[in-house]
Design a protein that fits this description.
By secondary structure, the protein is mainly beta. The chain has one helix at about 10-15; strands at about 35, 40-45, 60, 65, 80-85, 85-90, 105. The strands form 2 sheets. The chain has a 5-stranded mixed β-sheet, covered by helices on one side. A two-stranded parallel sheet has the order 4-6.
Length: about 110
């Protein structure tokens, strides 16, 4: 059995496809840390902490959680265009989420790394 990984190009094509339905994908993500795709920096994040988030990351691989106390840091998310993972906003005092104006896709895949 050969081992493969899912590339950022493959993920992007799948998510952006208009007439494609996928019930499940099995396979690990390739290592994208420090790479650039379509002129956007990709960052793989294991334990997301908005306070420590590098705002030069435009594509995030990992689960993004914005919680109580993160309100003062949300502007760091202004340039994010893709999240390859889940997005959870909970227990905040946020009145709006306009800091996500650049966000185009949140693509959650149940893939093992």
């Amino acid at each position: 059995m050969s081992l493969f990984c899912i590339t950022i190009q493959e993920i992007t094509n799948l998510v952006a496809s208009v007439n494609l339905t996928i019930s499940s994908i099995y396979g690990p993500f390739c290592n994208f840390t420090g790479t650039i795709f379509e002129n956007e920096r990709i960052c793989t994040i294991q334990n997301f902490r908005l306070q420590n988030f590098d705002s030069s990351c435009k594509r995030i691989i990992g689960n993004v959680i914005i919680g109580s106390g993160d309100e003062q840091y949300v502007e760091k998310m202004r340039n994010v265009t893709w999240i390859y993972g889940s997005l959870l906003i909970e227990e905040t005092q946020l009145a709006n989420i306009d800091f996500f104006d650049s966000l185009e896709y949140v693509a959650f895949f149940n893939c093992k790394r």
